[in-house]
Every structure is written in structure tokens, then in C-alpha cells.
Amino acid sequence: MDSSFIEEIAPQLIKWRRTLHALPELGFMEYITTYRIGKELEKMGFQLYIGKDALEENSRLGLPAQADLEAHEKKAREWGVEESWLDQMRGGNTGLVAVWNTGRNGDHVGFRFDIDALPINESADSGHHPAKNEFASKEENVMHACGHDGHTAIGLGVAQYISSRSDHLQGRFTLLFQPAEEGGRGARAMTDKGWLDDVDYLYSGHIGIQSLPVGTIAATTPGFLASTKYNAYFKGVSSHAGINPELGKNALLAATTAANNLYGIPRHHDGVTRVNVGKLAAGSGRNIIPGDSYMEIEVRGGTPEIAEYMAEKATRIIQAAADMHDVSCTIEAVGVTEVVVCDEELIPKITEWCATSELVKEVQPSVPVSGSEDVSFIMNRVQKHGGKATFMLFGTKLDYPHHHPQFDFEEEALLVAVDAYIHILNGGSAI
Amino acid sequence: MDSSFIEEIAPQLIKWRRTLHALPELGFMEYITTYRIGKELEKMGFQLYIGKDALEENSRLGLPAQADLEAHEKKAREWGVEESWLDQMRGGNTGLVAVWNTGRNGDHVGFRFDIDALPINESADSGHHPAKNEFASKEENVMHACGHDGHTAIGLGVAQYISSRSDHLQGRFTLLFQPAEEGGRGARAMTDKGWLDDVDYLYSGHIGIQSLPVGTIAATTPGFLASTKYNAYFKGVSSHAGINPELGKNALLAATTAANNLYGIPRHHDGVTRVNVGKLAAGSGRNIIPGDSYMEIEVRGGTPEIAEYMAEKATRIIQAAADMHDVSCTIEAVGVTEVVVCDEELIPKITEWCATSELVKEVQPSVPVSGSEDVSFIMNRVQKHGGKATFMLFGTKLDYPHHHPQFDFEEEALLVAVDAYIHILNGGSAI
Amino acid sequence: MDSSFIEEIAPQLIKWRRTLHALPELGFMEYITTYRIGKELEKMGFQLYIGKDALEENSRLGLPAQADLEAHEKKAREWGVEESWLDQMRGGNTGLVAVWNTGRNGDHVGFRFDIDALPINESADSGHHPAKNEFASKEENVMHACGHDGHTAIGLGVAQYISSRSDHLQGRFTLLFQPAEEGGRGARAMTDKGWLDDVDYLYSGHIGIQSLPVGTIAATTPGFLASTKYNAYFKGVSSHAGINPELGKNALLAATTAANNLYGIPRHHDGVTRVNVGKLAAGSGRNIIPGDSYMEIEVRGGTPEIAEYMAEKATRIIQAAADMHDVSCTIEAVGVTEVVVCDEELIPKITEWCATSELVKEVQPSVPVSGSEDVSFIMNRVQKHGGKATFMLFGTKLDYPHHHPQFDFEEEALLVAVDAYIHILNGGSAI
Amino acid sequence: MDSSFIEEIAPQLIKWRRTLHALPELGFMEYITTYRIGKELEKMGFQLYIGKDALEENSRLGLPAQADLEAHEKKAREWGVEESWLDQMRGGNTGLVAVWNTGRNGDHVGFRFDIDALPINESADSGHHPAKNEFASKEENVMHACGHDGHTAIGLGVAQYISSRSDHLQGRFTLLFQPAEEGGRGARAMTDKGWLDDVDYLYSGHIGIQSLPVGTIAATTPGFLASTKYNAYFKGVSSHAGINPELGKNALLAATTAANNLYGIPRHHDGVTRVNVGKLAAGSGRNIIPGDSYMEIEVRGGTPEIAEYMAEKATRIIQAAADMHDVSCTIEAVGVTEVVVCDEELIPKITEWCATSELVKEVQPSVPVSGSEDVSFIMNRVQKHGGKATFMLFGTKLDYPHHHPQFDFEEEALLVAVDAYIHILNGGSAI
């Protein structure tokens, strides 16, 4: 059944992935990425929703600075993004939603693919597959180090299948190409637009996470953590470090003291905790006592209660570090993810449907992870309205962890993922 | 005697100062500043030395990144700096030396004026004199917050005097308009070029430092501190903060631990110590364990021995913080200043010569400071060859300390300073 | 079956517990406790092994200072411990082993009860059950805050049963009353003496840990953590803090820097981690730079690999903190526990045997914990030689956590525990 | 003149010093020391005031715990201190005042000698003079490491002179043998008793501080620092570190965070600053999250304003560290010293009077120090009532700094000091 489809599309899948990989864009700045996705989907015949038609503008979290948005919009224009598209996306309204209605009764099936990249400088090491094959990031300090280039390519593959096999399918299909997953900033904006409110089945997933053989997939993933993301701004008083050290109010020391103590938030007996200060910037010049500093922080917990515990401790520590150095402090919540609970009744179905796949060698019922994903908002909305949802894994060997400058995955995983989704479609939506 | 000169030049002095203030440039990027100074001195008839004729290229410390230099060179061109000037200054060879030879036997008298600005965002507060009078910095995050705009204007005033009264003077005059004083990075490059080797008297000075009434000057300044400036680069391993925290080697925590402990270097019984972490940048994204971090540090001591003590402690702490978090570390010395000892025999002379000034109300023999100045290299070179040197203060009320976003000085101090230098010239170099 | 036994012994159980509670003794100083236990067992007719006959002297870890041992031996004599007993226990050879041989073929069944207390000052709050009922600790800063007083009473209850019902039992019984469980210091010494080498079934357990209703017990406890305990000694140089701060090498700052960073050891994706600095002492006088400091540390991990990871990180941090402050450092490993894996085939047996108990209301198959226990050495030895072992929980409501100054348990839990063990004995060892 | 006196008394001086050195006592526990001093002065014929007759009980600061006082009183009794003396001193009312009235008109001259020791464990190194000569401290962790044993011996020497040469002298003499100088705790209590209110000249001094040749003395000492001493008590909640880490409120981390940040209080442009955490104790057991901690802190400043600045910063940091870890905190001020200003008109007098001494080789007018001394209260009281006061130095080579376990001084310095005081007496008070 349809195994020829994968053979046909394989070269295209890899081409899509590499093109996207070479031009990564950070969250809410995926102008070129969105445009490229959109132009492909347009060709396939999908109905597209972009800009404020795709997401609820005011539900976006952690928007980039206006100047960064504008600079990137300018670059997008130079790269050939059409003005009409830019007009709709302007101000960080990236991502899009693609809808296909077979016209036949049947389930409403949703898919979600995340499309953004990370602020990491990709390795130029000759042993690094993208560098060796000349599709490494052309952008300094931006990299697809989490596999979202692959996710996007998978999404296009699934779309191509729906488009080309539409007359064998029933029901409706909604494909969310979501911006700004990193930092948990984009999913809520799509969720709040109402796309999920009548979805019967929602599928999403991730390449990697665990190092598993290509061909192994997981039907569900327990253990995704609830998380809260903060920006903290410390405001002190700068002074000449040699002449008047006593007149300074040191915002750098407030931040460094906060950072060191944040990592010491006590572990919790009831489940997993995480804390990270991912970014810290303080001060302007060597002989000036730093009057300003800035931190990006993230805390996670294995249950909503633990996430709340971590958040309470973190804000206490940050505020006290400010008090200690007599500086003021603003703490801004810029992203949130919820706990994910996959619907276990999908396990036997996915297992059965994929049993006929030549590419899917093994379906593990459940593989635990300890990251966070704002797909949580999407899944929770589906489930709230009575639908079923799962977040799957697509196996690949991982020589380096996610978010590492040498992160990479085996491209055969793309074929496996598309084939798995096709079998799920055929299982659930075939005429 | 010549009091008319000050009256005549006063409006020009203030205009020079405000023009410079509005377009501040960081060390080794004073392209526009140097050009403006040079064009004025050219009109006055000085013989000019710019670029590699003014300074010893390889003796510069803490040069900006090549990309920053090029971006600023481009901006300088847009602002009208002539291509021939840019050609000579390219690559951070800023500052210039202006020479005047009366043709008559007499002392060789040197003056040194520093011209660079600081990475501080100038206050837009309406109570801030430059903001209110519309000459505040037009450059974001660059500000003349140490009075070097004033020093440069004073230098031009002194030059104007020499030029216009040359027939009443004897001997030779060398005026150093030095780049990159902040960070102690530029003086050695001019010193190593040999300008000071036969100077008999060297005068330099600073507006402010202590809050003193306008009209009060100090003939000498004991207490300038020896200093060493470091950049520290920590290199760890980034990892996904949720999924694989144990695989990260956290360069941010190495830096924050170093920062917190650097401030705790024990005080020294034998004199003043200072330490500052003026800048810290770490990490790239919220959910990535930071694999890189960077700090700008400065230590100072009241004696060469204490400065050495501070430097030894600082490098030990930085290295141990790296070891603690299992990251590697590179410590780069990027600037140095020496201890300054003013020649006390200049005190009675300056006091006597300035006694006839209407603007100089009081000459304090000696006002202690605790900053650092790379004029130390210049003065020590003069003294090594048998010359005399001093570093003076020119009083102004200070509502905010140096390096504060609202730093300002009373512009009458410019007139006092020029008048003091004129009286010194008349005392020592008049026919 | 035998429910009358519990009724009979109940008052005695509570009396034993309270007497032990009122006179708690720290690890390897349980002279009076051992003596009291021994005198009871002697009366019951057990064969006793005390001192070096009970444990392998050189396998003890973290022995108290000789002076503390001697002071406590003196106190034990004053409290009436016989000289002959003291002679055998002298030097911290506390605890004892009681053996009962029915003379009939059958399994060799082992029980282990831990007997030591903690360095905590018991609450005098009137709401605190021991304070209200006047059996709170009479020793300052020593307290049974982990329930070992209850464990010891349970052991005596089980012993009483074996003694009084011996003619209905078969096989052999070995009861270990183990010293110094806190800190993981005593079990290895009993294990190395060979007591477990032919044990067929080994039962141990804990009151509390989870807050469960009295009557609920757990047949097994997954999740006990492997742990390593360290003492760290920092040696610097003291100096007058006002006159010569620069001559000091600050051992206090080495310790505080180590402490703050130890808590920041990254979490591990593969399981639970724990770290604690339980004690820190530094310095001798206010105006003296501290030349000495001392820390007691403990790290734990959910797997042997994670425990090793934590240990490697901890020693790195401690050494680097010493280097940072230019002091020397000695790190001494003073206690270890291993991971515990309970034999799951005991679950249905325990469940079945306890089904007839009137006191045991519910047997939960498995209740996870995240403490550490040196029963790990005992269980691992039994299992290595082919025996089966488990560590059970005996439910009680917990108003305060273990190791809290107001820790207490419901005394009915003692009855439940003895009854559970009796039913296990009857199930496995009855004629 | 009187040089024979020194020759005669020299062996006695050294004997006194060594006897005192061997039995050092901490502040407000100098029972034996006071008794020994008193018995000598009684023999000489002085009128003595001890206990509450010597000091104002309620003005004492930082009194030891009642239990420590009682233990030491018991020891004093065992060492032979008469019951009647103990009765007067009981509760930490140590030290004494000795008065001699010549009956002739003349100045009232005061001397102050401090008598307490430090909590330091004296070195047993064979190169350490007291160890080699068998008069090292017999008390563990108590040591005369600041020379107060010498000061006391000097005081007895001066007393002997007054007593034996009384008929050549005029006016009155008041000798304060002050307890608890370390920590700035005792002087105020003697001052508040009124002893200084009509003193015309007050002399005190210190052996060492600077390493100077024996025979060199300083007439005055600028630079003594104002200081404030604090005890900080942190109160959190203990918990089992493995099972319920999230329930603990960690008082140890509050203290270590405070300590690390206290050392980072910014230096002050206007003068010397000092900070020390001399003692830190936290926690009770390795696997218990520490619920209690304690710190002894001291801050100093070169001016009253700087001392106030340091105190304000220190209390802010301590409170914020408590807030950060959600523990409560009590900050107790336990000692204070003021800034000392020696009367410069004494310089020529002391210089002149000592010119005839064979032992005093050189009188330096002024030798700066940077310690703190509660003689400040005594001198400030004298000066407030119109008297003159100075604090002198008596030179000795110093191989190790004050408060070092190998601190020692050259015993010839005792002779020089007594001879200097005799010449001062003869200069100012001879008939």
C-alpha cells in the first residue's frame, strides 16, 4: 500500500530538509521559512491561512524586539519573499495553517509541525554531516539544532500525500506549521485561534530525543515537563569602578548571584525538576560598574505542582538577589508549557496501523522524555473538546544531544516519519 | 596677559566640546573624532602625524573586532571622513600627533589629551544638560561619560593659542591626541612611537574626578592606580537543558562563579585595591545549557606590588571557576596601566604661573584620586628620559560620578583648563 | 492465629520504644542502646554476639573521634552499662547480632533493625507527642528523628515472638541490630562479618517515609538511591582580618563557594539526583581570616552510574573551590550505600501471608522512595548468595518529615509491623 | 635615670609574660588572668577595683554564653582563684582598675592594657618560640596571638615602677587592665564607669602591628578603623535530604550566600574598608537539610561614614540571603569600635622624653595601621573631656602576622615599652 509514494518523495523530502536547514530562522522571525512552506502547499492545492488569520496575535509570548523583526523582514524581502506575504506576516506573525477538506464525512485530523531554529552557531567540523554536505547554516548563530527542519519537511511530505491521494481519503485535515516552539512561545497563539476546537485526532512528534534506531518509533511520550520561562531585568546604577566603586549598584552581581542560586533550587521528591539560565548579559565596559543586566531563565517540573514550586522558588531567588545588591528587578514571564498526557488508546491503533509499514520496524508503546513542548497547549485543547492526541518519537541515532552545535539526525528518519503518518492516515481516514 | 584670548575662544571651545559630545566614538574607532581634530589643527598650521605615523600599531592593546572596525569605518565614510584619512587610520589606527616648532631654542613641552568615549547609553532625562541643550549622544550605547570630549576641546584651545601666539613662544610643542584611554589601551602605542623621548615637560589632566569648584585646579594627583585588564573566555559544551542537563558543561556558571569570587579578593593592608567585572555575556538561548561565556575584568592596585597581587588572585580565581565547571578557559591581558608619580617640583611652578590667571582661583598642590590612567606610560617614559611630568585636575561640580549615564561637567571648566595651560606655557615657554 | 500475642506485647512495645526514644545515641556510640537490647534478648534466650564478634571492626566507616567515643563510654558506665559489655563494645563496636536455632530443618531467615539516632535537637513543643508524653530526648542535639527507636522496638517484638513460639517454628533466625545506619556507615561492617552468607530470606523495613495510613504496608520499595558521603577539610592560613587581610588564605570562602556550587550540579536525565551539605564549620574568631573549614556532604543517584556522576562532579567542585582560594583540601569518603533492588517474587507471598492479619489492612506491592539505606549492603549480599531480600514500609501519618525536630510516628505502626513480620514468619517458617 | 629599674625588672617581665601566655583566656572569661594581675598589684600597694566596681556591667557587648562562663568559672576555681574574687567577677565581670595617688598635685595619667586572648590553636612547631621554650598555650583553641600577654606584662612593669618610685612622682595614676578587647567588647564598659572623665593624659599602645626593629616606637597611630561586629542567626527548616529535599528551608545556603556576597561589598573611594566572616557554623548532620546556621561578621571603615556604609551594606546582604532561601534571620550587633585620632601635640613630647632612653632607639612620629581597637572609646572619652590621648606602637620583628597560630614577638620589646612609658612618666609626672 502506497510504499511507492515514499520512494517517489524521498529525494524531495531530503531536499526540503536541507534547504530549510541552510537558512534557519529564530522564533517569530520565520518569514522565509513560512513563505517557502506556503508556496509548496499552494502548489499542492491546500487552503492557506497566514499571518493574523493563522494565529491570535496577542497570545504570542516572548516576541523579539521590534528592531530585530524589522531587520529580519528586510532580509526576507532581499531573499525574495513576496511583499503581499510580508504584509501579512509583518511584526512576527509567522507560521501558517493549511486545510484540506475531502468533502466526505469523516474525522477531522490535525497535525502539528514546528518550524523554528535556535540561537546556536552550527559546527563547521568536517565530521558534521551538514557541514560536509554543504547545507550547514548560512546564518551566524542560528541553527536547526533540534530537528525542526526535519519536522517541517515531514509536514510537507504528509501534505503531499494528502493532496495526491485525496480521493482515497475522507474527512478533513488541518496542518499547523507552528512558529516559535523553542521557548514555548507560539503554540498558544495558534490554539487560541480555535484551530483545534473540533479536531478528533491530533498527531505531532519529534525526531530523536532518545537515541533509537531508525525505524523505531514511539506511539506516546510520557514525561514532558511543564515549564515556565522568564526574562529578568536588573536595573542598578553604573559608576566608575576605580574612582567611585561605592556609588555603583551592581546589576551584574545581582544576576550572577541569582544564577548561582537558581541552580541550587532543591530537587523535589515527587518528580523531575529542571532549571536553566540560558542567557546572561551584563554591563557595558570594563571599568564601569554594571548598571544593567539581563537573564533568560527556564524552570520545569514533572507535574504542574512541581512546575509551580520551581517558579515560586525562582522568582523568590531573583528578587532577593536584586535586593541584596540594592538594584531593582523586573521579572517577565515569556513562555509557558503544560504537562502533556498522550491518549493511551492510540497506542494499539498506531501499533496496528504501522504494522504494515516496511519502514517502521518497531512501535514502542511509550518512551519517556524530560523536555518541554508547547504542543502541550495544542494537545490539551484537543483533549478538552473530546478529541484524542499523542506526541510521537521518530528514532534516529544521536551522536550529539539536541541543542549541540553538532546535532544531527539520520535523514532516513524523515522517510520513516512520513510513512508512519501515512499509515495512520490510511488506518483512520481511508475510505 | 592674554586674558582676551580666552574670551575670544570661549564660544568655540564650547562648540567643539558639544560637537564631539554628540558623536562619541569608542577606543580605536575614533575615526570621525580624529578627522575633526585633524582638520582644525591643519587650519592652525600644525604638522600632523596620523595613522601608523602617530602610533606603533603593534603596541595597541584590546583592539575591537575586525567586523566592528569595518562597520565603523563605513559609517565614518558616510559622515564625510576623507578617503585619504580613512586609508591611514584603517584598522583602528586612530588618534594623531600635532607638532609645532617655534624655531627658537627652548624646552620641548608635551601635552596629552585623550579622545575616546564609553559604551554607556546617555541619559535622555530633561535635567541632563546635554539632553536639554540637544547635544546628547546620537549613538546608542556610546557616550562621552568621562569628559574626554572636554579634554579634546581643551587640546584644540591650547593648540589655537600656540598657533596664534607662536611668535611669543620658544622651543617645541608636541600635542598627543590619544585614542583608547578607556581600558588603558592606547597610550603605550604612542609612547612606543618615541614621541616622549626628548620631552622636557609633559602636562596632562582630567576634568572632574573630585567634585571641586570651577576655578580650582590640582597641580598633581597622587594615587593613580596600576591596573591590568583581562578578557576571559570560557568554553564548555551546550546541551538541551531539559533532556540532557548532565551532558552540558556550563560556561555561564563558570563565569558567574568567577565574578562573585573576584569581588571577594581580599583587601590589601598596603594600599588601595579595585576589581570590576565590567561585562559578562553568556549563553545563546533559554533552554540551552550555555557552552560559551565571556567576561571583561579589571583589577587595580595602589602600588605595582598590589596590582600584581590582584592580578595573581584574579587569574587564579578565573581558572579555578573554569575547573569547577569542567570548562576550558582563556585569559587574555588586554590593557595595562602603571602607577603615576607626578613630579612635585612642578607644584610651586604651576602655582606661581597660574597666580596671575583670572580664571584659576586656587591651585591645590595635590588631590588624591583612585582611578587608573594609561597616561602612566607617557609620564613614566618622559621621566625615564629625565623630563618632568604631571597629571592635573580641573575642578567642576559633579552631580553624577564619572561613567554614569548622567555624567556632566560645567563647561566653564574648559576655559579654566585652557587658561591654566596658557599660563603654564607663558611661564615656561614664553620668550 | 496468634493475634493474642500482639495484644499481650503491645504495652511492652510502646514502653521499649519510649525508653529508647528518651536516650538516643549517635552512630557507633549506641552503648546504652545495645546494652538494653542485649539484656532483653538475653532474657528471651537468644545467643548473642556483640562487639567484634558482631561486626568487622575495620569495615566501619566514619567512626566518631576517639575523644567523643571515650566521653560517651564514660557516660554509658554512669548509666549502668556493665563493664564486661563496655569492654567488648569499646571503641565504637556497637550493635549486636542475636541468633535463634529451632533445631529443625528449615530456612535461615534474617531480619535487620537499625538502632542509631540523629544529631537533631528534639522539639519541646507541647504539640509534639514525645514532649507532651514526657519521653522526648534527654540528650541535647541527639534525637530519634528517623524512627529507629521504633525499628528497635519492632525487632524486640519479633524476637519475643520467636522465643515464645519457637516450638511452632522451623529453621534458623538471625536478627541484626545494626549500628550507624545514618550516614551509611554500619551495615558493611556486619555484612563483612559473614552473617548474611547463608540467609535464605532477609526482611527489613522502615516506619513512615511516605505518609500512609496505619495498617498499610509496602511489600517492596523501589527507588532507594546509591549514595556517597564525604567529609571535606580545607586548610588555609589565618591572619588578622583588619591589619593583613592579604596574608590570609580563606578556608571559609573555599567551603562556602563549594557549598553553593555543589547544589548546582546538573540534574541527570536518567534518574534522581540528590546533594546535600549537611554541616559546615569554619573559622575561630570574628576578626581572624578563617584558616580552617570543614564540610559534611552527601550525594545520591537513582542508579550506580548517576551516583558515580554525582561523586565525580562533587569532588571536582570541592577541589576547584580550594584552588580558587589557594587553600589545600582533603576529601575523605566516609560512607556509601548501594542501590537496592527488592525481590519481586516476595510481593505475592507477603501479600498472601499478611491477608489474615487483623492489623495489616492493605499490602501495597511497591511504594517508591528516594532515600538511601545501607541495608543495601545487607540485601545485596543475601541476593549475591542466592537468597531473597526486601525492604518494606510500615504506614503512619507523618505530620513532619523525617529528620525534622518534630518528626513523630503513630505508635500503632509498631503493632502493625510486628504483626506483619509474625505473619511472614508463620507463612514461611511455621511447622 | 632609672635604667637600673629595667635591668632589675627584665626577668620578671618575661616571666609574667610567659605565665600569662601559657594560660590564655577569651574575652570576659579572664578570671585567672585578672586574679593573677590583681594579686601582683595588691602586693605593690595599688588600690584595686574589680568586678562591677571596675566596669559597667550593662555596657559589655558580646558576652559569652552563660554555660561557657560557668564552665570557665569552675576551671578558675580549680586553678586556685579565691572564692571572694570569683564572687565579684562572676558572670563575666573580668578585668580590673588599679589606682595610685601620690598625694601630690599633678596630672591624672591613665594607662590602658588589654588582657584577653583569641580562639586560635597555638602552633606546636618547634620553630615557634613559645613552643620551643615551653610556655605555649596549655588551652586548646585559645592563644595569645595578638600580644596582649605582653601588654599585660608591660602594665605590671609600669605599675611596679609607679609603686617603687612613687616618692619621685606627682599626681594620680589609673591603670585599666581591660577585658575583651578582641571583638571591641570591653572598653565601653570601663569607659561608661567613668574612669576616664578627668584623665589628663591617656597612653595605650600595641606590640607589633607593623614589623619594626626592637627599639623603634611610634608616638601616634593614624588609621585605626571604625568597626561594627555582628552575629547573624539564620533559622530555616530541616528535612531529610534524600526523601523530602523540597520541604527544607536551607539555612546553610543562606549563610554561604551571605558570606560570598559580603566579601564583595564595593570598596570605597574615600578610605579603607574591611569585611570578614570570621566564623560560620551550619547544620547538624550529613543527610539533614540544615535548619540553622550562624555567622560572626565584622566590617570596618577608615571613617565613621565608611563604617556606616559597610554596616548598611552588610545587613542588607544578610537579610537578602535569608529571603533568598526563605529562612528567617536575626542580626545582632555585638561589638563596636570608633575611629581613633591621636593627639599630635604628644608627638614632640614623647619624642623628647624618650630621647634619653637607652632602649628606645627611634621614635617615629606616626605609623599608620589598619586594625580596629576599642581603645577608641577610651581615647574619645578622654578627649571629649579635654584630655590628650595617644595609641603607640612598640616595634618588634614579626615573622608571622597577628592572629596567626605562629604569631610571636621579640621579648625585648617588653623592656622597650616599659622604658618608654617610664620616660613618659618622668617627663610628665616627675617631681
In short:
With 431 residues, chain A is of the alpha/beta class. Chain A has helices spanning 3-22, 31-44, 66-78, 83-89, 129-132, 148-164, 187-191, 251-262, 304-324, 346-354, 375-384, 412-429, and strands at residues 47-50, 96-101, 108-114, 172-178, 201-211, 216-220, 226-235, 239-240, 273-282, 288-289, 292-301, 328-337, 362-366, 388-396.
Outline the fold blueprint:
Four copies of one chain form a homotetramer.
Chain A: H1 3-22, H2 31-44, E1 47-50, H3 66-78, H4 83-89, E2 96-101, E3 108-114, H5 129-132, H6 148-164, E4 172-178, H7 187-191, E5 201-211, E6 216-220, E7 226-235, E8 239-240, H8 251-262, E9 273-282, E10 288-289, E11 292-301, H9 304-324, E12 328-337, H10 346-354, E13 362-366, H11 375-384, E14 388-396, H12 412-429
Helix pairs in contact in A: 1-6, 1-12, 2-6, 6-12, 8-9, 10-12
What report would you give on this structure?
4 copies of one chain form a homotetramer. Chain A has 2 domains: 4-224 and 340-429, Aminopeptidase (3-Layer(aba) Sandwich); 226-337, Alpha-Beta Plaits (2-Layer Sandwich). Chain A is built from 12 helices and 14 strands. In chain A, helix 8 runs antiparallel to helix 9 (304-324). Chain A has an 8-stranded mixed β-sheet. In chain A, strands 9-11-7-12 form a 4-stranded antiparallel β-sheet. A two-stranded antiparallel sheet of chain A has the order 8-10. Chain A has 431 residues and is α/β, with parallel strands linked by helices. The model of chain A has no long low-confidence stretch (mean pLDDT 93). The longest helix of chain A is centred in the last third of the chain and has 21 residues, at 304-324. Helices cover 35% and strands 23% of the residues of chain A. Chains in contact: A-B, A-C, A-D, B-C, B-D, C-D. The interface between A and B is large, with 62 and 62 residues.
